[in-house]
Amino acid sequence: QVQLVESGGGLVQPGGSLRLSCNASGIILSIYVMGWYRQAPGKQRELAATITSGGTTNYADSVKGRFTISRDKAENTAYLQMNSLRPEDTAVYYCYFRRYSATVVDYWGKGTLVTVSS
Q1: Residue 31: is its pLDDT beyond 90?
Q2: Nearest C-alpha neighbor of 83 from the set 49, 108, 58, 43
Q3: pLDDT tens-digit series, residues 69-78
Q4: What's the rounded Cα separation, in Å, for the pair 60 and 89?
């Protein structure tokens, strides 16, 4: 199975930047979707950004133009570069990994808190 280890959260002022990392260990199949969902207190969890094994990216409208997702295949690590951060970006960010096999299996990281505040 896949184990996800996240890092990079913290406190940043509005307009600042952070980079999140998620390392995936275990058996990695060639077909997958990986990325981040985020959840603010009192709100529903929502997709922030994902990238597929084929390199296709998907972003929430609210982060387009500000966030960039990428991955290092050799290191089995995904990165979320977050620029021009806004207070509304404050949330717990959860790394997400969907593996396609005989069945579809989802894996979640423990989450890392991003706080955007002056």
Answers
A1: no
A2: 49
A3: 999 877 889 9
A4: 12
| 46 C-beta neighbours (distance < 10 Å), count | 13
**Cβ neighbours of residue 108 closer than 8 Å, sequence gap 6 or more:** 4, 94, 95, 96, 97
Distances (CA, A) of 108 to 20, 40, 56, 94, 95: 15, 17, 20, 7, 6
Q: Is the pLDDT of residue 51 over 90?
A: yes
SS3 17: coil
Kindly state the tokens that stand for 23.
């390392």
Alpha-helix runs per DSSP H in 1-118: none
Measure the CA–CA gap between 79 and 118, rounded to whole angstroms.
25
> In the beta sheet, which residues pair with residue 96?
35, 108
